[in-house]
Automatic annotation (TrEMBL):
Annotated ranges, domain Integrase catalytic: 47-200
Polar residues bias spans: 269-278
Molecular function per GO: nucleic acid binding
UniProt-annotated stretches for the region Disordered: 257-332
Basic residues: bias regions: 322-332
Organism name: Elysia crispata
Pfam families for the chain: Integrase_H2C2, rve
Superkingdom, taxonomy of origin: Eukaryota
Protein's UniProt name: Integrase catalytic domain-containing protein
Example of a GO biological process term: DNA integration
PROSITE patterns documented for this protein: INTEGRASE (PS50994)
């Protein structure tokens, strides 16, 4: 609206509003800085083929006692693992992940945010040593790690209820995890422990049989089909008010490069040093050979000495223009 008002004060021609709107809609800088109420359509992650191929990691905390919870969730079975730690540094996180991977195996992909323990050199070396791919989500977009972020809400409920009922948080958390792993998940339709281990684990509730009714491959195929169906339902619900943008960054960048000759990337000619030296505004000092340096006489270098103010009673003027006069009490 402001741009239209400015242009209308200066010039007018048929279709001026449409041209202004088209120009602003195709401006990458304008669209990236403009706050809009519509969101981009969701891009759902495909379900892995088997358990423990892809895992998501995130931190919860700090708790009232100052501890942090390292949450690891399997993307296929939604099997959660929670470990207590006193710090979120890489030195504290890597041993915990190493212990978990020694118990359940090394995953192919680990998804995390861009927090301090995951963007360090130590964690990159740890991932390279074990041979898994570390996938970082989009910065400031926690929805990309939605499996872990949704599980944090459950941990928050356990923390609040344990505080209200005056019970130990760790024992209540372990009891919650024991029941959560045996409850069918709303997305996969199967219990996380059944998909993770191929059997139902025992609990305090009576169990008729721990043998699955389907074979392993049929169970995995059914889980992937149910997961895809539920994700499509979530996408349809979330995309009701979303609108995809028509900006293609790669295409717009190449078009701008072709239209503006000043943005063309020119490779320097290694065979022509004179053109480069003439275009440079900085003085270029060519190195001398050892024989030329030996023939050149060494010039004496005088040390820089600070300028002293002459001992006189007459007033004098400094470089900044200030007049300095000697006090009268020093005239004697």
């Amino acid at each position: 609206m402001k741009t239209k008002q400015l242009i209308r004060q200066k010039i007018w021609f048929p279709g001026v509003d449409a041209k202004i709107e088209d120009k602003i809609k195709n401006c990458i800088s304008c669209q990236s800085c403009t706050q809009t109420n519509t969101q981009e359509p969701l891009k759902m992650s495909p379900c892995p083929d088997s358990p423990w191929l892809e895992v998501s990691v995130d931190f919860y905390g700090p708790t009232p006692k100052g501890d942090y919870l390292l949450v690891i969730v399997d993307d296929f079975s939604r099997f959660p693992i929670v470990e207590f730690t006193s710090s979120t540094s890489a030195k504290s996180t890597i041993p915990i992940l190493d212990k978990v991977f020694s118990e359940y195996g090394i995953p192919a992909t680990l998804r995390s945010d861009n927090g301090p323990p995951f963007n360090s050199h130590e964690f990159s070396a740890f991932a390279k040593n074990l041979g898994f791919t570390h996938r970082k989500i989009t910065p400031l977009w926690p929805k990309a790690n939605g499996i872990c972020e949704r599980f944090m809400r459950n941990i928050g409920k356990v923390l609040k209820t344990s505080h209200i009922e005056n019970k130990a948080f760790k024992q209540e958390l372990y009891s919650f995890l024991r029941n959560y792993r045996q409850t069918p998940h709303s997305t996969t339709g199967q219990a996380p422990s059944l998909l993770m281990f191929g059997r139902q684990t025992r609990s305090k509730l009576p169990t008729t049989s721990t043998t699955p009714s389907h074979n392993q491959q049929t169970l995995y195929d059914l889980t992937k089909l149910t997961d895809s169906f539920q994700k499509q339902k979530m996408k349809n619900y979330a995309d009701k008010n979303s609108k995809p943008s028509n900006i293609n960054i790669d295409q717009d960048f190449h078009e701008e490069m072709e239209s503006d000759p000043d943005l063309q990337i020119q490779e320097p000619d290694p065979t022509s040093n004179s053109n480069f030296m003439e275009s440079s505004k900085l003085p270029v000092e060519l190195p001398c050979s050892p024989h030329e340096e030996a023939r050149q006489p060494a010039l004496p270098v005088e040390p820089l000495r600070p300028k002293r103010v002459p001992h006189t009673n007459a007033p004098y003027t400094t470089k900044s223009g200030r007049v300095v006069r000697k006090p009268n009490k020093y005239n004697d």
